[in-house]
Design goal:
The chain has 271 residues and is mainly alpha-helical. It folds into two domains: 66 residues; 140 residues, f41 fragment of flagellin, N-terminal domain. 74% of the residues lie in helices and 5% in strands. Helix 2 packs antiparallel against helix 3.
Length: 271
């Protein structure tokens, strides 16, 4: 008599297959990812890795743009104060140009004027971002600094030099009526330069802000697309888990039935 083992072996194979599916599903549910390795789906895994590379690039570009905006905001705040000081100096020059003032009066005004010049140079030399100067024509304010926003894509920061020598006010003097009159002309030119610098800062801030919005939108899209491809649908996973558990129980029941049948056959054979 030939014993038929096909039934128990088939039942055992089905049970092993279902258990492996459950283990794989449990691993994915623990990680929250549908695709973790190439064996899950090689083509999708390659696409996921491509999106991950893009996301890393977008994050870097976003950080660069945010830093660039912070640089310009810092520079603009200091440039605004420079403009306020120049306005005060212009008021002093206007007073000193009055013919009824004595030289002593003008000297008094000139003392404050020169102190304000020192403050201008202090601001231009000490205004910095991450240790790099902004308003003395060097470092981040040299005009050669760029913000990387992507592969071979850069936005240049404007040249920013608000030292008294660059503004043309370092040698101004209010101790005479003629000097005060000349100072008014020089201060008007300096104020115009500050306005031009702030306008350039504003234009670049708008450009960086627009680029930042674009990058953030691209980042969100890339993350959403990657998530749809890679991340696990928990509702679907729970449903699948329930089905596999039921299949496991059914396979175990079938295996028990096949084993009982085989055992009965063996017992009958041995009698």
């Amino acid at each position: 008599m030939v014993m038929e083992l096909k039934g128990p072996l088939t039942a055992l194979g089905n049970l092993e297959k279902t258990r492996n599916q459950l283990l794989d599903l449990s691993r994915k549910m623990a990680s929250g990812k549908r695709i973790e390795r190439a064996s899950d789906d090689a083509a999708v895994m390659a696409m996921v890795e491509g999106f991950t590379t893009e996301i890393n690039e977008y994050n870097k570009a976003r950080d660069n743009l945010s830093s660039g905006l912070a640089v310009l905001n810092t520079a603009d705040g200091a440039a605004s104060e420079v403009g306020n000081i120049l306005q005060r100096q212009r008021e002093l020059a206007l007073q000193a140009s009055n013919g009824v003032l004595s030289d002593r009066d003008r000297n008094t005004l000139n003392v404050e004027f020169q102190a304000l010049n020192e403050e201008l140079d202090r601001i231009s030399s000490q205004t910095s971002f991450n240790g790099q100067p902004l308003l003395n024509g060097q470092g981040l304010g040299s005009g050669s600094t760029t913000v990387a926003v992507g592969e071979n894509q850069h936005i240049a920061l404007p040249s920013m030099d608000l030292r008294t020598s660059a503004l043309g006010v370092s040698s101004l003097d209010l101790s005479t009526q003629e000097g005060a009159a000349n100072a008014l002309e020089g201060l008007d030119s300096a104020l115009s330069e500050v306005m031009n610098t702030r306008a350039a800062i504003g234009a670049k801030s708008n450009q960086l802000g627009s680029a930042l919005t674009t990058v953030e939108n691209q980042l969100v899209h890339a993350e959403e697309t990657r998530s749809k491809m890679r991340d696990l649908d928990y509702a679907e996973a729970v449903s699948m888990q329930t089905r596999l558990q039921l299949q496991t129980k059914a396979a175990m029941k079938t295996l028990k039935t096949e084993n009982d049948t085989l055992r009965a056959s063996l017992e009958s054979l041995l009698k």
